[in-house]
Amino acid sequence: MPNIEWIVLYMVLGACVGFMAGFLGLGGGGILVPLLASIFIYQGMSIDSVIHLALGTSLACMIISSSASIRAHASRGAVVWPVVRGMAPGIILGAFLTAQVAAHINSTTIALFFALFMALIAVQMFFNWQPKPSQKPISFRGLIVAGVGIGSVSALAAVGGGFLTVVYLGYKNVDMKKAIGTSAAIGFPIAITGTIGYMMSGWSKTLSDPYTLGYIYVPAFLAISIASFITAPYGARYSHRLPEAYLKKIFAAISLVLSIKMLISFVQF
């Protein structure tokens, strides 16, 4: 097993991400992926695989957080289940295929994509930008196409699914609270499919690496999941006490800085 200090570090990271997820309704991947990549580098893991391990492990952690989030939103009637059913096939296809392809993509390229995508999210959060609502109703074909795109992006940027889903549903005139709740439900098939995809694509590449299941680093997954499961309810409890818009800006700034740091680390190697 890894040294106890690494396990403690993973649990602290999980506690912070869980609290932020409960507080802001975000998955925390913008913080989790770059920090995991940095920790894996310090642990001496191969630079060629740390970004894949960070993404795969982050998606695996999302299985726990999204399942808890689904229960909370569904109990308030904030999940539009027909939209979830319509987008799920495309999401599963996009996330699985992209996770397979990602194994053959250079780590620096993925780090660049992640950093640029986090920059997009930061701009959206800072300026609260939303696209002009469409006059066209939601169609099954549109949901499938949107699902493929969202699933594909999510496999390369673990924060992508929730952000893109909320923007897309807002564009389709879905109430914002229901868009957020539906996004939480859509996060579950993204997490499941992305996790399976990274497990399969990395299986032969990490056979000699201890404590891995493909591109899932099991000690980090367990420690982060346990800690985030404990702290997420506390974040949700305190979410109404501080201005959400202000905290989202802080979250976006931190995520962007960490993503740029991750990119610089990869360029240096």
UniProtKB/TrEMBL annotation:
<protein>
    <recommendedName>
        <fullName>Probable membrane transporter protein</fullName>
    </recommendedName>
</protein>
<feature type="transmembrane region" description="Helical">
    <location>
        <begin position="49"/>
        <end position="72"/>
    </location>
</feature>
<feature type="transmembrane region" description="Helical">
    <location>
        <begin position="246"/>
        <end position="267"/>
    </location>
</feature>
<feature type="transmembrane region" description="Helical">
    <location>
        <begin position="183"/>
        <end position="203"/>
    </location>
</feature>
<dbReference type="Pfam" id="PF01925">
    <property type="entry name" value="TauE"/>
</dbReference>
<feature type="transmembrane region" description="Helical">
    <location>
        <begin position="110"/>
        <end position="130"/>
    </location>
</feature>
<keyword id="KW-0812">Transmembrane</keyword>
<feature type="transmembrane region" description="Helical">
    <location>
        <begin position="6"/>
        <end position="37"/>
    </location>
</feature>
<keyword id="KW-1133">Transmembrane helix</keyword>
<keyword id="KW-0472">Membrane</keyword>
<comment type="similarity">
    <text>Belongs to the 4-toluene sulfonate uptake permease (TSUP) (TC 2.A.102) family.</text>
</comment>
<dbReference type="InterPro" id="IPR002781">
    <property type="entry name" value="TM_pro_TauE-like"/>
</dbReference>
<feature type="transmembrane region" description="Helical">
    <location>
        <begin position="78"/>
        <end position="98"/>
    </location>
</feature>
<feature type="transmembrane region" description="Helical">
    <location>
        <begin position="142"/>
        <end position="171"/>
    </location>
</feature>
<keyword id="KW-1003">Cell membrane</keyword>
<feature type="transmembrane region" description="Helical">
    <location>
        <begin position="215"/>
        <end position="234"/>
    </location>
</feature>
